[in-house]
# Entry
Amino acid sequence: MGAACVRRLAAEGARVVITDAKAEMGEALAARLRGEGHDVLALPGDVMDEAGFDDALDRAIAHLGSVDVLINVAGGSYHAYIADIALDQFDRIYRLNVRSTVQACQKVLPAMRQAGRGAIVNMASISGIASDPGWSAYNSAKAGIIALTKALAWEEGRNGIRANAICPGTTASERLRNFLTPERMREFASAIALDRVGTPDEQAAAILFLASDDASFITGATLVVDGGLTARGWQPTDFDRNHGLVRGG
# Structure
């Protein structure tokens, strides 16, 4: 989804800096977009390396001169039941999802305050508004992103800075396509009202909306982009029987 956001921002004429732990992939994307005439810089920046990420953020701000938009998309998950979860892995998920978001916000806020404006979009998840048994670390981290974003919206609203969170549902990202078989992907799609999974470009469009002036009176919001997955409960109904779906149980 990060790459889709970069492409959309560049297409809108924005000057973009990418920070990515996968430096080669970030540079390949930036080089391709520069070849198309866009102003895109890629910097190595692993959010799990606090000093290295801090340096990447400093270099990004120095390159841009000012920061109008920050999009935090770093994240990751870990599977274990609460009774069995390794606490070091629990801490890792919070560093990857929550602490990195705080660190990036702390870096850009002085420049945004000075400018009297700015927009921050944080990557949460539908897993932050509902539970996935076995994914408690990820659930709680993404719920933390939602709460953090609401607090940030109030803390910085008087400074002209907006903060919103996006909650993607099942999205056909490269990672998910590599992880799920086509049959399993179809199972996920069957739980969605639109009967398909989302695309990275659809998530990027929602993120860019929240970052844009079209959302100038939206702050502290949590935008769910899940094709209707969370629009209903999980009790089996006649609808499910009539459509050959299996729910609950």
